[in-house]
Design a protein that fits this description.
Number of helices: 11
Distance between the termini: 35 Å
Structural class: alpha/beta
């Protein structure tokens, strides 16, 4: 039975970020849609290799073991793909093969995926397609561009580390516009005069809020079991120095979120 997506962390992930679709995409561009359908159908039981976002998504989903009810997880990850449902079958089979607890997917048949971000209450949408990310961001949706990485994935490491920038990310870009348009000295004076005035939330503030909800559960687990080591860690990485640092902290406090 399905359940509501409210009060849980909902992340959308493009299939090309979750799995390595380099070979499939090359075949599509060379042979066209009809041959591509046949290509994917013939390989439906050939699992796709993990993509660049796979380790992050796997670790994020592992946090569902903190839920009081195993059938009512804390994290929901939804595939949002430009494939159609027929060619998307291989993606879903690959999800099952890799043991990812993901049951929801949207297949847009070539259309832009970003309208589904708000409809499904996603606090983050990840894609390797830069144009999709820009289009979503322009609509005010929380989207991130996943870039290739040479980092190795340690299966034994279950930690989830998330680092946020502040201006234009956790907060709106009002202060950053002052810096860009009027320079560093004016920016410092502007921030010092408004240090007790919180900034408006930015596009990823809801993501921090949802992650904090999971952190609170981990903190309760740690209080009950001193040997428990929290797996979710959140950092704020910002170029703000004194005196501009105080407004960032005061903003977080006013939103009732923390890092």
């Amino acid at each position: 039975m399905g359940y509501e997506l409210r009060d849980r962390l909902v992340v959308g992930i493009a299939s090309s970020a979750l799995f390595d679709l380099t070979e499939s995409d090359a075949y599509f561009r060379e042979h066209g849609e009809k041959a591509y359908r046949r290509y994917q159908d013939e390989r439906i039981d050939d699992p796709l290799r993990p993509g660049v976002a796979f380790p992050f998504i796997k670790r994020l989903l592992s946090l569902n073991d903190l839920a009081a009810d195993a059938d009512d997880g804390l994290v929901e990850v939804i595939v949002v793909s430009r494939n159609d449902p027929n060619t998307g079958l291989r993606v879903m089979r690959s999800i099952e093969h890799h043991g990812l607890p993901m049951t929801r997917a949207v297949f847009t048949q070539g259309r832009s995926p970003h309208p589904y971000i708000g409809a499904l209450g996603m606090s983050l949408f990840l894609s390797g397609n830069r144009e999709d990310v820009i289009a979503a961001s322009r609509e005010g949706f929380p989207a991130g561009h996943v870039l290739p990485s040479a980092a190795t994935y340690d299966e034994a490491d279950r930690s989830v580390v998330v680092a946020f920038d502040f201006d234009g990310v956790l907060a709106d870009d009002g202060s950053e516009r002052v810096f860009r348009e009027e320079g560093i000295e004016r920016y410092r004076a502007y921030e010092a005069s408004r240090k007790a005035e919180p900034l408006e939330p930015g596009p990823l503030q809801p993501l921090l809020r949802d992650l904090n909800r999971i952190q609170q559960i981990e903190e309760q687990r740690r209080l009950e079991d001193p040997g428990y080591e929290p797996r979710l860690r959140i950092a704020l990485v910002t170029a703000r120095g004194a005196p501009a640092h105080e407004r960032a902290i005061r903003s977080l406090q006013s939103w009732d979120v923390y890092v």
